[in-house]
Amino acid sequence: MFEITITGHFDSAHYLNGYKGRCEEVHGHRFEVLAGVRGEGLNEIGILYDFTELKAHLKEITGYLDHKPLNALPSFKDCNPSSENLAAYIYRELAARLQTPGVTLSFVEVHESPSNRVRYTP
Ligand SMILES: [Zn+2]
C-alpha cells in the first residue's frame, strides 16, 4: 500500500454559532489542509497519483474557501464552518475529483492552528 500526501492552505474568517466562548466572535485562521491518497498499484511510470494533478484539485477547493466569510457560503448555510465540517467538505469535494481506479482518498486534515487539528475519514 502506498499513501501520498499533499498540503494546501486558505485564509478565511468564521464564527461558531452556539459556541460559548471566543469562537462565537468572527475571527480568522490560516487553515492548513493535509490530504492523503492511497492505493496498491503504481502506474507504468511508477507513481500512485500525479502530485501536480492532486494539488490542482485541492487548489480548486481551497480557492472557493480562500478569503471568504465561511459562514456566508452556501455550502455552510446549514452547518457551522467548524474545522470538522471544513474537513468533511474538503473530503467530499476532493474525493469526487479523483477518477483513478484503485486510488482512494484516505483522509483530509484541517489545521486551524499548529496545535489544533482535525482529521476526517469517512
Ligand atoms: Zn476558528
Query: How many DSSP-defined strands?
Result: 4
- The top-level CATH class is Alpha Beta
CATH architecture: 2-Layer Sandwich
What strand line-up does the widest sheet have? 1-2-3-4
Instruction: Characterize the main sheet.
Output: 4 strands, antiparallel
What does it look like?
The chain is of the alpha+beta class. It has a single domain (2-120), classed as Tetrahydropterin Synthase, Chain A, CATH 3.30.479. It is built from 2 helices and 4 strands, in the order ββααββ. It has helices at 51-65, 83-97, and strands spanning 2-14, 27-39, 103-113, 116-120. Strand 3 and strand 4 (116-120) form a beta hairpin. The chain is elongated and about 50 Å long. The model has no long low-confidence stretch (mean pLDDT 96). The site of zinc ion has 5 residues, from strand 2.
Characteristics:
single chain; 122 residues; alpha+beta; Tetrahydropterin Synthase, Chain A; four-stranded antiparallel β-sheet; 25% helix; binds zinc ion
Compose a concise summary of this entry:
The chain has 122 residues and is an alpha+beta fold. Helices cover 25% and strands 34% of the residues. β3 and β4 (116-120) form a beta hairpin.
